[in-house]
Amino acid sequence: MDIKKIILALTVAVSATYAFAQEKAGDSKPAEYEFTVIKEAPVTSIKNQYRSGTCWCFSALSFLESEIIRMKGCNDIDLSEMFVVGKSYHDRGIKYVRLDGALGFSAGSSFGDVLHVVDDYGIVPQSAMSGMNYGTDKPEQSELDAVLEAYIKAVTENPNRKLTTAWLKGYDGIINAYLGEYPTQFEYNGASYTPESFRDWLGINADDYVNLTSFTHHPFYEPFIIEVRDNWRWDSAYNLPIDEFMEVMYNAIDKGFTIAWGSDVSEAGFTRNGLATVPDVDQKPGAGSDQEHWLGKDESAKPQVVTSSSEKTITQEMRQIAYDNKQTTDDHGMHIYGLAQDQDGNKFFIVKNSWGDAGKYNGIWYASDAFVRYKTLNIVVHKDALPKDIKKKLGIK
């Protein structure tokens, strides 16, 4: 070959290699996740809590709706969130006054609160009580929350030095004005029910459900009261080592159960794009809707994790440190109903949220094993979702 042709060929080859290297170096766009469902249980339609701090109720009722589908096959069930919210506020107001105001008072609460309300008062379908009695199409409850708090604080100050017989009636009157009157009897699919008889017909038994957590400041395999403000009923949770805690979650999904999931979502890895992973970055929460409150309005500044392999390896100690220093708090309740894997075989829990059709997956989030290990505060599952050996360790029959 002519020496000039050799030089020209080498020049072309080097230029092509350099151009390819430059193209790869400049290509910083994160790879897209591709999820394949491993297993999922039926769920009802995605709801929107909008401008209300009632995720605990939306997620717990979604969980119970899946339980009703599992037990009775009622795929069209839609329970009234505001029936539960109103009864919860009623009970909370009474306890707040009894404790002279030494109790957290806000829209936030816990999964156990929902079970208490259903057990004590029953439940009604959405068709019997929508709870939207204040002129908007979606829940906007900042005014209701502010009015209730101001009222109950005024009562607690006890200006007469003796509580009147009218304060509770007035307090309930505010709740009823905003959420509507509670139905004492209603029709559903051609039959007549009370809230209590409807609960019994649905087959919901609060004693069938267990609350679980995983922290080291209390002994494992014993229950303790999780020390967060929203746990105002002071419900206890069984304490498991994190590996056994995760074993319960995987076993639940494998056996066809779903999970009420309490987590911290004020994390850079919990994105508006439907992902929950554990990158090593910080983020400040925003304001506005419940979604904006935790995730902010600007998603562009939040870095995206490309693969699960770039996440932290989570330990029991890391969980405890994050809880002790307030990096893990009881931000948000959601509903886990399935398991998926990405293109690299990494496991992700499939999560139903209550922010409408938000995100890339229209209201569904994919939470990595690492995120769930690190940022789960507690879960509620049916007791039969527990592996037999763990059930025995906890003394649950």
Tally of contiguous helical segments: 12
Radius of gyration: 25 Å
SS-based structural class? alpha+beta
Helix content: 25-40%
What are the secondary-structure elements, in order, as H or E? HEHHHHHEEHEEEHEEHHEEEHEH
Largest sheet: 10 strands, mixed
Q: Poorly predicted ranges (pLDDT <50, ≥5 residues)?
A: 1-27, 283-287
Distance between the termini: 85 Å
Q: Can you tell me the overall shape?
A: globular
Mean pLDDT: 90
Instruction: Please provide the count of β strands.
Output: 12
Q: Which percent band covers the strand fraction?
A: 5-15%
Give your account of this protein's structure:
- Helix 3 packs parallel to helix 5 (142-156) and helix 5 (142-156) runs antiparallel to helix 6.
- The protein is built from twelve helices and twelve strands.
- The chain has 397 residues and is α+β, with helices and mostly antiparallel strands.
- Strands 1, 4, 5, 6, 7, 8, 9, 10, 11 and 12 form a ten-stranded mixed β-sheet that branches.
- It is globular, with a radius of gyration of 25 Å.
- Mean pLDDT is 90; it is low at 1-27 and 283-287.
- A hairpin with a 2-residue loop joins strand 2 and strand 3 (191-193).
